[in-house]
Amino acid sequence: MEIEKIKLNKTKSILQFGIPATIGMLMTSLITIVDGYFAGNYIGSQALVAINLGLPLLYFYLAAGLMIGVGGSVISGIAIGSGDKPRANNTFSQSMFLVLCVGIAISLASFFLFNPMLRLLKAQGEVAVLFKQYYSVFLFSAPLMIIDSCYGMFLRADGEPQVYMGVNALSILLNAFLDFLFTAKFGFGIRGLIFASLISLSISVTINTLYFLFRRSKNPSQILLNFCKFKFDTDTVKQTFFNGSSECIGELAGCISMFCYNFVLLKYVGENGVASFTILGYSMFIFSMIAIGLCEGMAPLVSFCFGAKEKKLCIDLRKITNRIVFCVGVVFAVTLFFAGRFYCSIFVDDTQIINMVSRGFKIFTLEFLLQGFNLAGSMYFTSISCPKQSAVIAFLRGILILLITIFVFPSIWGMDGIWLTAPVTETLTLTAALIFCAQSDRMMKK
């Protein structure tokens, strides 16, 4: 990365980093979508429900992985911008060791949570059986998932987003092929879906590990991230956790809110409500992956420029990213407002579920227009080592406002209340995000 090139081509620089990150995130989201397709068409709607009930566990893993990956990559990115190669490599090596340990620890602890979670949600019968079949294998694949995700963050911080995109593409294509093979051809059921993920993630993590072990630079002055014999630095660990705290809060919020969504849906609507929310949620997941990918494309550029004392350039990069994600949101909102029924029919042929989802899109579309601004704001503050503001944005949109709306709105408006929760939450959070950005811009311009 070079400051002058970024200054001359701000939008191009964002897209050069953002498009590979977005493609990588989209491919990752396609694992979930493809799993949903095969679950709904070859196993049944109860498989969709079973997978959805365990999503809080997925979000918990992602919370830990993002906290370490984002927090560590920001430190490495700023170190690269200031020319401090030893700190960049030490932080990278220490972060990857941390995420491995944390992933294993979560899997060991989660093994004992299956039955309490099912009892609390009052999930029984076939759904409970499918849940255990899927998530008993998930405990092995989830640590690999967050390790793989962290590799992607550090590759972007190092200016090599296309490498992760290529490896990720291979992993996703393999996962889709194995999904088809294990479920459609061999009839392995829901276990086939998660075994496909386990195999593809294992290959992806192996390739990325070998890349960081053996990569070399032809230019001695160029800083490249490599594994090194790191010195465990508690101050760096604290800073890593602090920098990544907002992303951790955001994913933990996803864990908490998904559990609450499922609880409320089963209480007020039933299993069809969970299936409907799952299907609409796939579209939201795709949009979020695009928005997060673009924001993650912005993040290493902002960290690098911040380390090089180019503060005005940091602000310009955030504003351009806001415009890009808003345009993407408009495309999603318009498309799904008019094509919601067709989209839903891809997953199920149940008329009641299709009607629920179609109506949901009519209410939900504002979410696509607003979420990108809040994601960009949160990622921006993390990138300039201002995690407090980032954490507040994440807390408002992921916990405080969202949980209030989840428990209040459905009790008044039923399923329509479920669809209203996210748009109202993003609208109220945006006010705080705009205030923080205005305050930060004044400070940065001094």
A few lines on this structure:
With 446 residues, the chain is mostly helical. The chain has helices at residues 3-8, 10-43, 45-53, 55-81, 85-110, 114-121, 125-157, 161-185, 190-214, 234-243, 245-268, 271-307, 311-345, 351-364, 366-383, 387-413, 415-445.
Rounded mean pLDDT is 83
Helix content: over 70%
Number of strands: 0
- Cα-to-Cα separation, first versus last residue: 25 Å
Structure description:
With 446 residues, the chain is an all-alpha fold. Helices cover 87% and strands 0% of the residues. The chain has 17 helices and no strands. The longest helix is centred in the middle third of the chain and has 37 residues. The two termini are 25 Å apart. The mean pLDDT is 83.
List the helices and strands and how they pair.
Blueprint: H1 3-8, H2 10-43, H3 45-53, H4 55-81, H5 85-110, H6 114-121, H7 125-157, H8 161-185, H9 190-214, H10 234-243, H11 245-268, H12 271-307, H13 311-345, H14 351-364, H15 366-383, H16 387-413, H17 415-445
Key descriptive features of the protein:
446 residues; mainly alpha; 17 helices
